[in-house]
């Protein structure tokens, strides 16, 4: 999180937060929202379909811009994965298994990442506070306007696109020469893509290392596991951001 940052997050959060940080729109404060809402017909705490906190036309526009930006960015990663897969003769879909055992492992692999997200959401450690402030300032206003299905679909898109590219194509192409080297180089690149801050780059790199390991430690390697873990963690992280942002309004 996928996702700002850490995606997750915290995987997606670095990518999205980095993009949004460059084109972020100003978000009105809670008092301004209330004043604007009086003329538009809804209060600042009104809950619309799916639990979205949309109070003004500007809020709806912010939501649309966020989803369009995220969709374009993550969709670009899918196209890049397809191109690189063609160039290096790697078919990432061959590493996907859909059996019940795979889904069980995928669900179990999601739990440690969600636990990490929860720890970062609750902790008063300075690093955790700094990350929360970054996530809220870059992603909070837009995420608060999203309906639950927006976040589910976005998390799935992030999980599929980033894992398809990094674990499915880059890692498996490099693994022809060295599995250890492939894991290290892939996640150095993964950290670089999420390098909104140095601390977040390190966190993203460690999370990426975990995702690489849960893929290759089963026999045969299964891309479904990191995809589900990544998407599930991002969805949980978006929920944490949304909950904190709504408390500020």
From TrEMBL:
GO molecular function: endopeptidase activity; metallopeptidase activity
GO biological-process terms attached to the record: CAAX-box protein maturation; proteolysis
Keywords assigned: Hydrolase, Membrane, Metalloprotease, Protease, Transmembrane, Transmembrane helix
Transmembrane segments: 66-88, 103-122, 174-193, 200-217
InterPro entries: Rce1/LyrA-like_dom (IPR003675)
Pfam families recorded: Rce1-like (PF02517)
CAAX prenyl protease 2/Lysostaphin resistance protein A-like domain location: 148-236
Record-given protein name: CPBP family intramembrane metalloprotease
Protein species of origin: Schlesneria paludicola
Phylogenetic classification of the source organism: Bacteria, Pseudomonadati, Planctomycetota, Planctomycetia, Planctomycetales
């Amino acid at each position: 999180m996928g996702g700002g940052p850490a995606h997750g997050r915290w995987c997606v959060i670095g990518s999205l937060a980095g993009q949004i940080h460059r084109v972020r729109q100003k978000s009105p404060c809670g008092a301004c929202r209330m004043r604007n809402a009086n003329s538009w017909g809804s209060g600042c705490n009104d809950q619309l379909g799916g639990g979205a906190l949309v109070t003004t036309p500007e809020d709806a526009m912010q939501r649309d811009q966020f989803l369009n930006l995220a969709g374009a960015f993550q969709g670009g990663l899918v196209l890049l994965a397809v191109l690189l897969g063609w160039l290096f003769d790697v078919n990432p879909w061959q590493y996907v298994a859909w059996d019940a055992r795979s889904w069980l492992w995928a669900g179990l692999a999601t739990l440690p990442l969600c636990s990490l997200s929860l720890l970062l959401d609750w902790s008063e450690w300075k690093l955790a506070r700094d990350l929360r402030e970054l996530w809220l300032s870059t992603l909070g206003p837009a995420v608060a306007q999203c309906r639950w299905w927006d976040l589910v679909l976005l998390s799935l898109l992030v999980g599929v696109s980033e894992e398809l590219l990094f674990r499915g194509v880059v890692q498996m192409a490099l693994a022809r020469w060295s599995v250890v080297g492939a894991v290290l180089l892939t996640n150095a690149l993964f950290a670089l893509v999420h390098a909104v801050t140095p601390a977040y780059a390190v966190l993203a790199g460690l999370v990426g290392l975990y995702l690489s390991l849960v893929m290759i430690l089963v026999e045969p390697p299964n891309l479904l596991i990191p995809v589900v873990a990544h998407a599930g963690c991002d969805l949980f992280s978006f929920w944490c951001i949304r909950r904190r942002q709504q408390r500020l309004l």
